[in-house]
């Protein structure tokens, strides 16, 4: 009961920040919280007969699945022609799920739009930056900013949610599979909408000209009609490109707001579980600055290739949420054409370490045709159950054991890594890092992973957050890795966090540009020179060697900044540069401290630096594990996950019993390749 009350308290605290969330989170006291895990699958009944559906559902039940995700990618299944809805077949699907005791996440299928919609409303077609109208050749080719699209998507959502709002199988609602991975469009309608967006943002042509630095190289804009959509691929000034990305982000968020309004109206007692792809390089959107408007639980498609990138994406989608994470699409089999045994099971436990609550295999049936033809599901192409179904039945069995033992685990990170959509856009190839300015930056994600990797390997929980969107008092340490664009609100948030007693680490190439992607005309880091007690205006192109504690380490990135401390204390110097310039400094500011690293974030540098801070910050690393093995302690038991393709021996203290395997271990735990185990003290 204490855990349940805690979850409700967290939910209400978030609701107080946003009235929309109050409606979405307050009304479902029976929503699964602590003590429930979910194994299941994604299911697309569009080309399954009712007899096949019945056999499929029977296999799902037999395998111990608790939940399925349906409806995504299926707009014309529900609305084959404009205004004519067909639900007979899907009614039967929902009833079969209910009879089997399987809950349903119903995805509103706003993407892709049906062919009839493209034919009748050509504004929904994508127009590329060369001005060519493109046929919807793949599922992401819908212009979601088109008014007809938004109107019809709202109607689809309204009709679908009204029909199934009271169905006993309905668990949650999702929005527009992988929204964020669409294409940017360049139609005249898009240009006009962009102009209106600019008018609201800047108010006047003079303000726009100043923000876009149009005095440079004869780029001054005289009237709004002269404004063109900046190119996403190709030449163009950085300032305009950033606004292009912001514009499309706002359109995506507005589309989600449309759907969330429908959900609040028709299914206020059901939460949102949307399969987001906010960091997609095609378009993306500012999920970290908007999630309270349109989601209850973080959810995503999880197709990890390695634990560092997989862990990073899991942290990205969790953001600052206190609720557990759902992995609505999940790698079913692993690398290779058909898959690798043990791969899915290993990752299903890895996500539990990251605060996950559910894993849904993609997908139940193998694909006979379409854009993912020959994709292997849990059933083979002739409908025979493959070994994958047996593995997922084992995952369901594991989850049934673990949910009684403190899972999903409550994740309360004390360390955060700064992230922002604007900063990622500012780092784009079309932005500041072109031609002669290339040496000024290392891609944000490379730096972020450089900071994240040592923390993950030390088995420490990490939040990935937008600084201006969260309550930073929850954290003791915040890392700003390559935050090239640190906007005014985030700058002030950092200042307050440090003044109030927090510790920050900023790395090279941070706080260089303002909110408009223009370089600061003041000493760098922009707006924070007093907080860090230094300025840094010069750059060098060489790999530095420095000492952190007793460890001598070398940068593998040939960029560094020349630091000019004022009130900052030098903690480390480069030993291979003339004059041994400062490599790491610390400045006391208010009650806290601000640390500056003169190189981009890299694991071999960040590891000793972070470890030198743990004791003073009261941070406890998790269990010590060999490389590639990750672990967390949950209610006195320890879950170990071996992500290696070879067996590993893990040192343990005393005698332990494996909850999943049933074996007794003393002194060490032997994990098979891709093996997992939950150890509890042996009485």
Number of helices: 19
CATH architecture of the largest domain: Alpha-Beta Barrel
Count of distinct strands: 25
Average pLDDT metric: 92
What level of helicity do the residues show? 25-40%
Radius of gyration from CA coordinates: 26 Å
Q: Which percent range describes the beta-strand content?
A: 15-25%
Sequence stretches where pLDDT stays below 50 over 5 or more residues: 1-29, 431-437
Which CATH first-tier class of the largest domain would you pick? Alpha Beta
CATH-wise, what's the superfamily of the largest domain? Glycosidases
Query: What is the first-to-last residue Cα distance?
Result: 27 Å
Give the tally of structural domains.
Answer: 4
Main beta sheet strand tally, sense and closure:
7 strands, parallel
Kindly report the spatial arrangement of strands forming the biggest sheet: 6-3-2-1-9-8-7
Structural class label: alpha/beta
Would you mind describing this structure in some detail?
This protein has about 675 residues and is α/β, with parallel strands linked by helices. It has 4 domains: about 1-30, no CATH class; about 35-185 and about 265-400, TIM Barrel (Alpha-Beta Barrel), CATH 3.20.20.80; about 415-615, Rossmann fold; about 630-680, Sandwich (Immunoglobulin-like). Strands 6-3-2-1-9-8-7 form a 7-stranded parallel sheet. Strand 4 (about 125) and strand 5 form a beta hairpin. Helix 16 crosses helix 19. The two termini are about 25 Å apart. Residues about 1-30 and about 430-435 have low confidence and may be disordered.
């Amino acid at each position: 009961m204490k855990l349940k009350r805690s979850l409700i308290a967290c939910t209400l605290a978030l609701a107080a920040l946003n009235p929309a969330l109050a409606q979405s989170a307050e009304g479902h006291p029976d929503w699964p919280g602590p003590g429930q895990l979910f194994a299941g699958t994604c299911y697309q009944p569009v080309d399954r007969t009712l007899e096949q559906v019945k056999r499929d559902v029977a296999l799902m039940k037999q395998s111990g699945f608790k939940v399925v995700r349906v409806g995504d990618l299926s707009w014309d299944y529900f609305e084959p022609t404009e205004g004519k809805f067909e639900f007979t077949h899907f009614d039967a699907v929902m009833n079969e799920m209910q009879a089997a005791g399987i809950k349903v996440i119903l995805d509103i299928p706003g993407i892709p739009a049906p062919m009839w919609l493209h034919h009748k409303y050509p504004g929904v077609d994508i127009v590329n930056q060369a001005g060519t109208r493109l046929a919807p050749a793949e599922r992401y080719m819908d212009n979601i900013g088109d008014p007809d699209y938004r109107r019809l998507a709202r109607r689809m959502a309204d009709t679908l949610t009204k029909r199934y709002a009271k169905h006993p199988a309905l668990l949650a609602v999702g929005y527009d599979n992988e929204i964020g991975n669409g294409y940017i469009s360049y139609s005249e309608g898009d240009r006009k909408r962009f102009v209106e967006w600019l008018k609201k943002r800047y108010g006047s042509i003079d303000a726009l000209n100043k923000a876009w630095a149009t005095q440079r190289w004869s780029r001054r804009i005289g009237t709004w009609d002269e404004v063109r959509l900046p190119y996403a691929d190709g030449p163009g000034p950085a300032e305009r490109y950033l606004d292009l990305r912001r514009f499309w982000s706002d359109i995506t968020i507005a589309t989600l707001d449309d759907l969330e309004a429908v959900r609040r109206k028709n299914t206020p007692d059901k939460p949102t579980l949307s399969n987001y792809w906010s960091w997609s390089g095609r378009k993306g959107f500012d999920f970290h600055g908007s999630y309270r408007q349109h989601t209850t639980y973080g959810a995503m498609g999880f197709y990890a290739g390695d634990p560092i990138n997989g862990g990073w994406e899991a942290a990205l989608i969790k953001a600052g949420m206190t609720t557990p994470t759902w992995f609505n699409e999940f790698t079913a089999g692993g690398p290779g054409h058909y898959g690798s045994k043990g791969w899915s099971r290993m990752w299903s436990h890895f996500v539990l370490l990251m605060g996950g609550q559910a894993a849904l295999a993609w997908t139940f049936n193998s694909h006979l045709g379409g854009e993912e033809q020959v994709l292997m599901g849990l059933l083979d192409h002739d409908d025979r159950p493959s070994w994958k179904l047996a593995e997922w039945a084992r995952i369901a069995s594991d989850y049934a054991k673990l949910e009684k033992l403190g899972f999903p685990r409550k994740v309360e990170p004390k360390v955060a890594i700064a992230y922002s959509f604007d900063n990622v856009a500012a780092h784009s190839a079309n932005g500041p890092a072109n031609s002669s300015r290339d040496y000024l930056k290392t891609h944000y994600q490379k730096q972020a992973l450089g900071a994240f990797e040592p923390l993950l390997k030390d088995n420490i929980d990490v939040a990935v957050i937008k600084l201006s969107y969260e309550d930073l008092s929850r954290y003791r340490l915040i890392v700003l890795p390559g935050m090239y664009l640190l906007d005014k609100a985030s700058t002030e948030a950092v200042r307050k966090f440090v003044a109030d007693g927090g510790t920050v680490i900023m790395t090279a190439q941070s706080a260089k540009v303002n909110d408009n992607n223009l370089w600061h005309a003041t000493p760098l880091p922009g707006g924070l020179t007093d907080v860090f007690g230094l300025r840094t205006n010069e750059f060098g192109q060489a790999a530095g060697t420095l000492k952190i504690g007793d460890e001598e380490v070398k940068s593998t990135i040939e960029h560094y900044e020349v630091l000019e401390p004022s009130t900052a204390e030098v903690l480390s110097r480069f030993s291979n540069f003339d004059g041994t310039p400062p490599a790491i400094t610390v400045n006391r500011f208010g009650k806290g401290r601000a640390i500056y690293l003169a190189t981009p974030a890299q694991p071999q540098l960040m590891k000793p630096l972070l470890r030198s801070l743990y004791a003073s910050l009261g941070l406890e690393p998790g269990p010590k594990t060999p490389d590639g093995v990750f672990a967390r302690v949950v209610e006195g038991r320890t879950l170990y996950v071996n992500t290696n393709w070879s067996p590993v021996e893990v040192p343990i203290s005393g005698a332990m019993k494996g909850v999943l395997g049933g074996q007794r271990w003393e002194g060490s735990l032997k994990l098979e390749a891709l093996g997992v185990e939950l150890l509890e003290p042996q009485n």
